[in-house]
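Forwarding the complex inputs:
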Amino acid sequence: MALRADRFFDPDPHQREVAMQLYDRVAGLPLICPHGHVDPRMFADPDYSFGTPTEMLIIPDHYVFRMLYSQGVPLEALGVPAQDGIEVEQDHRKIWQTFADHFYLFRGTPTGIWLVQELEEVFGVEEKLTGASAPAVYDRIAAALEKPEFRPHALYKRFNIEVLCTTDAAADSLEYHKAIKASGWEGQVRPTFRPDAVVNIDTEGWRANIDKLSEVSDISIDGYPRFIEALENRRAFFKAMGATATDHAALTAHTGRLSEAEAGTIFRRALKGEAGAEDAARFTAHMLMEMARMSVEDGLVMQLHVGAYRNHNEQLFKRFGRDKGADIPVTSEFTRGLEPLLNAYGADPRLTLVLFTLDETTYARELAPIAGHYPAVRLGPPWWFHDSLNGMARYFDQVMETAGLYNTAGFNDDTRAYPSIPARHDVWRRAACNWIAGLAVRGVVDMDDAHAMAYDCAYKLAKDTYRLGD
Amino acid sequence: MALRADRFFDPDPHQREVAMQLYDRVAGLPLICPHGHVDPRMFADPDYSFGTPTEMLIIPDHYVFRMLYSQGVPLEALGVPAQDGIEVEQDHRKIWQTFADHFYLFRGTPTGIWLVQELEEVFGVEEKLTGASAPAVYDRIAAALEKPEFRPHALYKRFNIEVLCTTDAAADSLEYHKAIKASGWEGQVRPTFRPDAVVNIDTEGWRANIDKLSEVSDISIDGYPRFIEALENRRAFFKAMGATATDHAALTAHTGRLSEAEAGTIFRRALKGEAGAEDAARFTAHMLMEMARMSVEDGLVMQLHVGAYRNHNEQLFKRFGRDKGADIPVTSEFTRGLEPLLNAYGADPRLTLVLFTLDETTYARELAPIAGHYPAVRLGPPWWFHDSLNGMARYFDQVMETAGLYNTAGFNDDTRAYPSIPARHDVWRRAACNWIAGLAVRGVVDMDDAHAMAYDCAYKLAKDTYRLGD
Amino acid sequence: MALRADRFFDPDPHQREVAMQLYDRVAGLPLICPHGHVDPRMFADPDYSFGTPTEMLIIPDHYVFRMLYSQGVPLEALGVPAQDGIEVEQDHRKIWQTFADHFYLFRGTPTGIWLVQELEEVFGVEEKLTGASAPAVYDRIAAALEKPEFRPHALYKRFNIEVLCTTDAAADSLEYHKAIKASGWEGQVRPTFRPDAVVNIDTEGWRANIDKLSEVSDISIDGYPRFIEALENRRAFFKAMGATATDHAALTAHTGRLSEAEAGTIFRRALKGEAGAEDAARFTAHMLMEMARMSVEDGLVMQLHVGAYRNHNEQLFKRFGRDKGADIPVTSEFTRGLEPLLNAYGADPRLTLVLFTLDETTYARELAPIAGHYPAVRLGPPWWFHDSLNGMARYFDQVMETAGLYNTAGFNDDTRAYPSIPARHDVWRRAACNWIAGLAVRGVVDMDDAHAMAYDCAYKLAKDTYRLGD
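Prediction (whole assembly, three chains):
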């Protein structure tokens, strides 16, 4: 189906018209992408290719294959690489056919929305994807991917991206970012410092990660003090490479400072492989305090993503590894959990702390009141499962009255799927304009305010929050 | 008031029109009733009578009398039978008058909606029920109930029911189901295996229930192994009698396997009347694992209803017993609670596990992600207090984007109140069509998809989930 | 901008028209204000002045200054008095300018809505408040405040207030209420008995509060029995002074009776300054039981506000004290917490218990089922952060189907900000009429019922719940 110009707006003609007016002024603004998981290699390698349509759209995208898996299609049949050596489907046309046969599963889902828009706007596919149309659609995308205008640099320009931030391990050498810088290309691709793999001592492979951190920082991490030193060293390096932010994932929002001695003791136990679950929880809580302290000192914006219970499906994890659509949210608590951190740094004008939740009950109850009080805090956009039309509507509904729009952080696409970026921002811009139009037609804000709010949602809040301004 | 043809649809004329189009195609589909509490006796006894209007609509319906109780009308005045021998009102016309005098309490409630529709569509009562109209309405219903077309079999046909599943204790002899089978009647009434009263060792009267289970299974339950044997025996019997599903209620979704020895020890303590609350919780968690194992083996669909804190009002419970509108929900947790069960059986293609919650915060946070990942899991419709227009709207809003429609289980009416069944399904069909129309008018799905989704919601999902297909 | 007559109603023309019809009949009803924090002194002192616009609208209103604080404006710059002797801004025009420069922060917030309506309807300010218009607006308000028609008594009449209840500490002498009575003024200003400061033994300054209670009650509180006696004494005094209600704030809804001996022991420890956090929690739980018992006996309506974690920002608390916009909600639990109290008194026809929550997840899950069952319970209106257009919509959505309208308590403004009272009631009346109009246009209720419901929401439920009837 051809995309409707007024899609996703309220059915009421008046609200739809106002939403359209607001949207028309922001639809063409450059994209600010302050948080995401696009592979920087694609911008460093001028010959980078996305591979087949299946390699681009299915195999790496757990949003896509989890839905087929949930209906009984094994990941093996979708070509997802197994770690245990088992053979998986290699015929990309066959995988594509399976995907198209099941595309009805995505009715009414954000993944469905993104894919339809991506197929039409990026690849010019206007026919509906079904089992019958699958081969023709595959051919069309495959043909497009051969052309130079479908290389990452060309798409960057076509997508009108102003800045795109990647997410990079603390021990990452940032070689691709170096290559991008060296290439003289005019795109703005920035790293983000993500130290989870060395900070959360219960991460699988933690010991090896510490060794790698020692190596890249040239600091021999023999204990807690050198660990801190190495992290500060890497932050400085990331900052020099253009980073303006860090990112932290934690199961809970628990924070709390340990004494230097306690931290040292736990770290020693971890080095010996003797740390327990309680050690890990306390150390993460402590390191969040340390990360906030460092952000106060070096000015890197601190992002905190809370509440994903990782790798819930053990068998799947053993065979296919992390990030396979088997992370399930848990309840989160911020009021008591963040109290130590906010008491120490929440009123410090040097800190910006962007909070993300998977537990929407915290929007109105905890996060909006916190963001509406502490100067350092901004509330990030709806994350992951909630990055959807309804998820955004609930966010606007439950957050904005208490936090105020200006204590929120605009949008980020948080995606690995580069060609889906315009569709994701477009959904946000439409949802935001529809929300603001609802305020305008109800007489809550006037049209001058409405236009300003639409601009802030679409562009300025993200840019300001992440200190990406000029 | 005469029922409006377009009732419950969005006020926007365009969405309402599309909803009406969708509804028109599904309104006449047969009713699939895969879970409910209708008394099978009414189909076994050809002379079954509903009694007076008061006996049919008030005395047995805790949805109705809890509301009057909440406003100070004692259950005694409503004829609800007391267990402690106290006298209750016997004048059914007087009770009806009290009910009608308070009917304004149901304004805007699902019970009000069902009653109005039931009165008009089943009994032809078009005048509004008030204190003034009460006697005339009573007479009209009483007269109707005299007629043969208001016997259960006739209503089954008139209601266009395709299949109706009852809920039956594990130790039930299924005598009425046997009689229905023997009668040669063409209706499809199936039992459902509900072992709560023997599986939850803290149930009042548990020891007597075990004795009854021994008796009907002809297996002397002297310990845990024979207990399991007896359950397997009964499941086979239920299946032979037409059951396609089991049903389990638990305060929490906690699951976890005990060793054979531990299970045996707890069961022994229970037989001696020495088991404590912790024993009961661990045993239930274990038995849910066992029930899933048996479902994998025998193919009975497993239903799990979580989160009702039973008999909150102690005095009321002592006088009137269970199910008197005094069950209050509590917070629920599924992500960690179901992990053992899902790791063991969640990817087994032989299992279907239908989950129900009274804690709507789990829709978007836990249940939709779980249903959108595990092949075995389907999410049941809004349950009990949430079986309402707004409850359904919240369900569609919070579940569908993440779980996808096809990981949900359609509708079930879950009711004891047989004559209310058509009204309940009609509310669901209207709510579903309105939701889908909202997607269509916003350009999220096209009309072909919309019609398919409406059909699936109204009919096919329930039939497929419960393996009631032809 | 000039306020639109149909503001806040649904954009759909039909629903808006019906909402307008409903609203037209209730807009002019007198205001029932059964719970709030207006200073009774303003009615006792015939020469009471609100001071400057800044003193009236900014300095005392934590809804206002928390938002500027969250964006980096220190409370010192807003003239909020510091307890630690530090100097704060004294130039009220300068503070006003800062406020106006940041007024865009209130876009789409309830505070923004109230202020705009208050400025226009109370002070005749129709121009938009901006940095540019700030001085002129200040002048206009300042000029108005000079006039006799802007004295509290005159505004009481103009606002069409029928009754206004204040909130007063148990040890308060009620001198202003005495003076109001003595003055012969025809306004109805009633005290409310709030014993938190003596009942919650972990309150800062608790020991001094007990001494004050001893003094005003003329009962020397040397232990728990005299403490109870003193409370009963004060309740009788408040009742004699016109009180119809009490109010209780607690971090949790935990209730539970202690033995007389246990209560005595904890109280003794508290008198010696040796009570711990666990003591405080158990004592509060016990005292809620006692307060319910006393309410059963003396007929004072019992209000319970649950879930505010007070003084989250420690530095701010040290400098500026309580109630500075730094209270953050936490999750709440009512089903198990209130079980002891409801089992003891929940079916007693003499008790009315009005429950308030900051955790909206409890609306549909716990509070609506509890209010829809227990005769004593009514659910209070959306509180604090949820006293907003969306907060009200969520309340109507999540509460009404299960609780029924007639188990709710109407509206209260809960405000310190006297001139904002009409705007707050108007938002509620509009939101309620819009909700009811939504039911009417969907065919859920007829127009007769709709008008009755609008009247009940706007006026009668609050009056009846708080026993303020004639």
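Chain C touches chain B through 47 residues (CB under 8 Å).
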